[in-house]
Each structure stands twice: as structure tokens, then as C-alpha cells.
Amino acid sequence: MKVVLENLTKRFPSRNKKGEDVIAVNNFNFEIPDGQLIGLLGPSGCGKSTTLNLISGLETPTSGKIYFGDEDVTNLPPEARGVGLVFQNYALYPHLTVEENIIFPLQNLKGDKKMTKEAMHDKAVETAKLVQIDGLMERKPKELSGGQQQRVAIARALVKIPRVLLLDEPLSNLDARLRLQTREELRRIQRDTGVTTIFVTHDQEEAMSISDLIIVMKDGVVHQIGKPQDVYDEPANLFVAQFLGTPQINVFEGRIQGGKVWIGNEAVLDVPGKADRDVWVGIRPEGFIPDENGPFTCKMDRVEVMGRDVSVVSTHEKMTGKSIRSIVSAENKFKPGQEAVRFSLKPYKVFLFDRESEERV
Amino acid sequence: MKKKNNMKAWLYLLPAILFLGVFMVYPLIDVCIYSLEESYAADGTVASIGLGNFRDVLCDKFFIQALKNTFILVIITVPLSTGLSLLIALGLSSIKTVKKAFQTIYFLPYVTNTLAVGLVFMYLFDKTDRTSGLVNMLLGTDIDFIDGEYWMKMLVTSLYTVWIVMPFKILILTSALASVNQDYYKAAKVDGASSARIFRKITLPMISPTVFYLIITGFIGAFKAYSDEVALFGSKLNVAGMNTIVGYVYDMLYDQPGGGDFGNASAAALILFAIVFTITVINLRFSRNKVQYM
């Protein structure tokens, strides 16, 4: 099911009377294609959970429309929208067994959709098999591990065959190893069912690794939508560039002058045809090539060995962070006590952003 | 080391043990002994008479009346007050504006003196030469609630008891409802459950330990009823036919010609204990599968 958000806005009244309203979601316009896995990505407090609640119907928008396919669902209550929702803390009913939890949505069906006990049981078992918890049907939630609880929550959300599956920070309550495993699993379940799935996360790696599309947002505003690799390779603005990628992108104060990018008093890159102005220069860690005759000189701090690669930590007077991190092949040799390190730069790993608007130049 | 720790533990417990021993354990044992003795006030001698006191009490028509009154009160007031409190607590937790004001109003009876409440009920129900009471005036009837028919008196007593015990229950239930994680409700809503089903399948099981606690303490409290009746009908409860078991014990101790009958009073108290104990055990058994401890 295609999901379309049209001029979607949600304001929360301020807590004290004099304060200004909080705009959690500001004029969203985007279309989520059918059957895809979408990562809604942003730092905490950016309105991504509110967006999810708006799509589920738990919150009503201040203005704007939500469509599932061609149907306007803006004013429908959650139960009429046919969404499945997985909560960050799973919200499994603690007094019910796994099977009773999974069956719960089916028992609420009314009219001609009403199911017999056997049909409900079969459906629950089928869904449990999909998420591989069919051996745990008689357990109570507290007798399950975090990963198992999450599968139950997903099964409960999927059992009614929702038009849209929504997951709020699905992996944040799992330990690192389980997180890696579960995100593969999530991808598989989504492929198997073909349900349009939107999940919220603040972890860029998580979003990039499994999503078909990522939506990067901050302060209630969508900053960029696109395939993970495209967003990484072509960030629309400084925020997106900084938010995606580990280690973070290195940002320098610089300027464009005479068709060249200057950092300090070194011209590090040719950019023919660009007008002169002050810019932020963002260089991905993998964009540095150690080169004795390179145009860009940094003060060497230390070299961290990571096996296949080494991470060169250096400093520069025009940098904005605490240090510059560049990841280069371990075949490059660095002398102990070396004071300066020179780089040439890969042009496609260098991004220029306007100093004022922070938009890409 | 272990021995030393043991000594320490006993030392810490000493004040509590002394206090409880003097004011609880010793009197309890004494009551058991009294219940088997008959004292003769005239010459001050005491004789052991076995279960004679129990027989006397169980054959006393005033005790039978008190027993009947107490049971009726328990059966009416415990479910009624718990049910009403739950409804009010649900209402309180779903309103948003002036919630605090309502909470305060509902809690007022709790901090009001029993006898003051009795006075209010007098205005509501008592018929005197000058007025027939507020309720009679409102209903346009002429019923004597205080000195009239048995069931009218029972009605007023039940109302009074329910009114007195509700604030505490509302307070406890409101906090129990507030402690239920809102995500369960959201999840149930997305899953398409109706409000009735959410209440039955989610809310009630989640607060069942609290409800159960209130029912148990409600039973025990109702079996111990006495002051409410005094507030309504005065201290001559046997004459009014509205005595309770505790009232009967009190009368035996202090309101007997020629001094108290400690033997009968103790026997009646032990009978009350046996009843409360039995009911509580039955409650625990019955609720074992119904109460969800998370």
C-alpha cells in the first residue's frame, strides 16, 4: 500500500500559556512507494515518532492529509486504518500468553471479518512461524528474551495483515549483536510479507543498512529523501552530511575563490565555474589520499590501526570538530614522529555547503 | 560471623518485638484464656468453664442479630463500594480538566470525622418534630430512616458505610489506573479493541492486584464495623436492633449490669476472628487464578 503525506503538520500547544507552540511535524510532503521498507531517521526530538503516530492514527494532524493508496485516512481512527504498530517497549500484554497476544487483534474483528477460534489459532501459528516463535506460544512475555519479545510484537502487528506496518525504534532495546541479527530478520520479514513498512530510528547505520528509502528529518522538517547510498553520496545540506556516516564527516571553514576551494591558505581542490563565496567544506573520512605532494597539509596527531585500514587522526586550524579523522589503506606507511601529513582529496567525497544557509553548493 | 550477625538482627528487631509483644501477642493470648473462663464479679473468683462462653454467645439473640447485621452490611457494602469506586476512578482518570478539584472532593469524606459525617446523615435522614429530614423532603415521602423499619435503617447504614469507605478506594484505584502503561492502551486501540474490551481484557487484569487488595481489606473493614452504627443510631445499638459483632463485644465489656463480661466478650471476638479468617482464606483461594501479578 502506497502511503502519501500531504502538507502534514502537527503542532502541540506549549505547556505554559505564554510559550510558543511546538511544531513536531512541519509541512511534510512525501510519497512512500508500495511494498518498501522505509527508514525514518533523525536525532531524538526531531518529530519522527510523532510522524509515525500520525500515520497510525494515534495522533490527529493539525493540518494536512494522509492517504493509504487512494483512500484518505486522515480522519479515520487507528483501528479503521489497518495498520500494525510495534512499540519501542513492545507493549506486549504481560498477563496474556504469546498466543493470546498474537490473537488479540483478531478477536477484535467484527461483522463478516469475524473468525472462528480454530481459524484464529491457525492464523496465529502461521504468523508466529513467520517470525520464528511458534515454539513459544504458551509462554508469558516476561519469560521471553528481548529479541523474542520483539518478534511477538511484530507477529501481533502482522497477524491482521496490515496495510502498513509501523515500527518505533524497533532495535533500540536489543543488545548490539542481537540488533544486527534482528535487522536482517526485519528485512526478511518485510520481503516475505511485502507489507509497506516504516520504521523510526535515530541510528543512521541501522537505517542505511536495511532501508529501501531513508527519510532524514530534523526539528520537524524533512531534510532529504532517497536511497541510502544516494543520500550518503549526495547529501542535500550540512546536517544530512554530518548525520550520516561513521566516522563523521570532517568539516572545515573554507572559501571558493577563483575556481578553487581554499582551506586556510591552501587551494585543496579545483571547482571550475563556481562563484566565489564562503563555504563549509565537508570531507568524508574515506576522501583523503595520503600524498607527499598533496595540496592539503594537516598536523599529525596519531595513527589508529584497525587492521585492513588505518585511521589517521590529525588537526587543522580551520577544522570545526575536535580532530580530523581520515581512513586510509594500511599500505600507507607513516613515520613515527612525523609532524605533518599531506593529503590529496577525492573530489566526489568533498561536499561544499553555503556558510549561511548550509545548503549544498 | 554468622552468629554475630544474628545477634545484631535480633537487637534491631528488639523494639518492635517488645512493642508488639506487650500490645499484641500478650493480649491475644489473654483473650484466648478469657474466652474459656467465667469471672464472678461478686467475689472476684475466676473459674474455667471450657467452651461455655461460646455457647452463651451463640445462643444470645443480640449476638445473632449482630451477626446478621454484620453479614448483610458486608455483602452489600463491599461489592457496592468497590464497584462504585472503580467507576469513579475510571471517570477521574479519563477527564482532563478540573481533575484535581474532583479528586479533592471525592477524597473529602476520608479526612472527615466519622461522627461529623453522622451529623450530616442526621440532617439528611433524621425525622424530628420540626423536620422530616432532607431526603424525605426531596422525595416527598415520610419514612423514618433512623427509628423505623429494619431495612430502612439498614439502607441508611449501608449508604453511610459505602460513603465512608469510598474515598480511600478511589484514591488507590486512581493511582493503580495511572500506573498502567499508556502504550498498552495505544496498542489495544491500534489492534481495534473496543473500550469495553480494553477495560475487560487490559485494564482490569492490570489493576487486579489492587482490586483484590481492596476487596480483602474491604471485607475485613466491614466485619469490624461499629463506629458508623454508633454515629447513626447512638450507643444503644441493641435497642435499635442495629448492633454489629464489634459493637456486641464492646457492649459485653462495658455495658453490662455489674461490670463487664470478659469471658463472653472474648468469645465473641474470637468468633469474629474465625469468620474473618475463613472469609479471607476463601478469598485468597478464589482469586488465585484471577489476579495477575505482573
Compact description:
The complex is a heterodimer of chains A (361) and B (294). Chain A has 361 residues and is an alpha+beta fold.
Q: Percent range for helical residues of chain A? A: 10-25%
Integer-rounded radius of gyration of chain B:
24 Å
Radius of gyration of chain A: 25 Å
Give the name of the CATH architecture of the largest domain in chain B.
Answer: Orthogonal Bundle
Helices of chain B, by number, come to 13
Report the CATH superfamily of the largest domain in chain A: P-loop containing nucleotide triphosphate hydrolases
Mean pLDDT of chain A: 90
Using DSSP, what is the number of strands of chain A?
20
The total tally of domains of chain B equals: 2
Largest sheet of chain A: 6 strands, mixed
What name is given to the CATH topology of the largest domain in chain A?
A: Rossmann fold
Most extensive chain-chain interface: A-B, 23 and 19 residues
